Recover the amino acids of this structure.
């Protein structure tokens, strides 16, 4: 929206004797970029005195308008300032009087720029997080005022403010909502209007489904699934309460507790969606341990590809079971210590279905965590194991 400024300048001419020069005057006016500048002489003065009028406006750097002239005695122009600073424009007005006397006025007009935002016109914030938007204008001395309407799905009431925006937005609909902020930039009576659209992203929501619900035996598979109707992509960090965790995009996941675990295990999943908005959910399960098992009878494995471990006697090689749905291909299998040193490596094949990989028990020390990795052209699985 452009501010319409109309400046009416009326010049009254008195009778000048033949051969006498009329006095020269200057008039200064201010207008806003792309607002109407208007200059006129009363028709009654022209008709009584019989004055012929001509005006000239030279082209000026910073003003988009080309040079212009006129002989009607009226000026009506929209002047376009392409800079962020005031630009002065001159109109040279010549009035020819009867008897050969000329009267020349120079009208100087200051065209002030319209302030506009140079900060981004889009923003993003997670539900309940604080939006901190600091507007900045091409006109450095501009001040700001803003308003935000009520938006369906956003709990906040309508609000207005000055200068920066600093408020928390609450998304109650669990769907992405866009909130407009209407920002006015003001300087020297000139106003620019911009809209900043803010995307309010919901945090992940839902609950953990635990199977079995209350109690699981050590060595028994525990299945965890996060139940939600939210369709935004997510990453999961599962914490199983036994110092094991899984960072994965898979949902559900499986886990088992080795024979040394027993008692209540706190379950937690930290979820971050593709917009960076996070939330956490909790649960618990009771683990019934096996007191007759020996510490060397099992190896604990954190899985995110339907992987499970076989408790077998320490005298045999420990084995890892894996199930893949990919095509048949060759891959490398590595065992590394936490310093990254390769303890064991071999080439394996990856047909579909359940397969078994031997873990070199003679090279694994009890109570030490190791990294296992199965890597091919299309598949990269990494997990941590430790022998009890």
């Amino acid at each position: 929206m452009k501010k319409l400024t109309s400046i009416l300048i009326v010049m009254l001419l008195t009778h000048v004797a033949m051969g006498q020069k009329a006095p020269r005057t200057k008039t200064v006016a201010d207008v806003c970029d792309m607002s109407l500048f208007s200059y006129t002489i009363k028709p009654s003065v022209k008709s009584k005195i019989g004055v012929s009028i001509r005006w000239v406006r030279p082209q000026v750097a910073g003003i988009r308008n080309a040079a212009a002239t006129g002989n009607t005695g009226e000026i009506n122009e929209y002047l376009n300032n392409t800079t962020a600073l005031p630009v002065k424009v001159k109109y040279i007005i010549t009035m020819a009087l009867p008897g050969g006397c000329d009267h020349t006025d120079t009208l100087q007009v200051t065209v002030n720029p319209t302030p506009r935002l140079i900060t981004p016109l889009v923003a993003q914030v997670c539900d309940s997080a604080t939006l901190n938007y600091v507007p900045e204008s091409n006109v450095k001395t501009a001040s700001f005022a803003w308003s935000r309407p009520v938006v369906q799905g956003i709990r906040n009431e309508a609000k207005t403010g000055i200068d920066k925006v600093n408020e928390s937005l609450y998304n109650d609909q669990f769907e992405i909502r866009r909130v407009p902020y209407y920002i006015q930039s003001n300087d020297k009576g000139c106003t620019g209007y911009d809209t900043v659209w803010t995307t309010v992203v919901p945090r992940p929501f839902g609950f953990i489904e635990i199977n079995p619900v209350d109690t699981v035996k050590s060595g028994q598979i525990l299945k965890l699934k996060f139940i939600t109707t939210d369709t935004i992509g997510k990453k999961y960090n599962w914490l199983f309460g036994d110092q094991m965790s899984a960072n994965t995009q898979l949902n559900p996941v499986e886990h088992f507790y080795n024979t040394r675990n027993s008692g209540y295990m706190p379950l937690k999943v930290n979820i971050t969606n593709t917009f960076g908005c996070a939330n956490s959910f909790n649960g618990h399960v009771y683990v019934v341990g096996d007191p007759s098992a020996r510490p060397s009878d099992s190896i604990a494995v954190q899985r995110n590809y339907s992987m499970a471990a076989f408790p077998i006697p320490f005298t045999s090689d420990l084995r890892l079971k894996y199930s893949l749905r990919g095509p048949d291909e060759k891959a490398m299998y590595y065992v590394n210590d936490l310093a990254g040193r390769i303890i064991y490596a071999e080439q394996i094949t990856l047909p579909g279905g359940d397969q078994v990989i031997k873990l070199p028990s003679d090279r694994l020390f009890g109570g030490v965590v190791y990294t296992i990795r199965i890597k091919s052209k299309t598949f990269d699985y990494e997990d941590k194991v430790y022998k009890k």
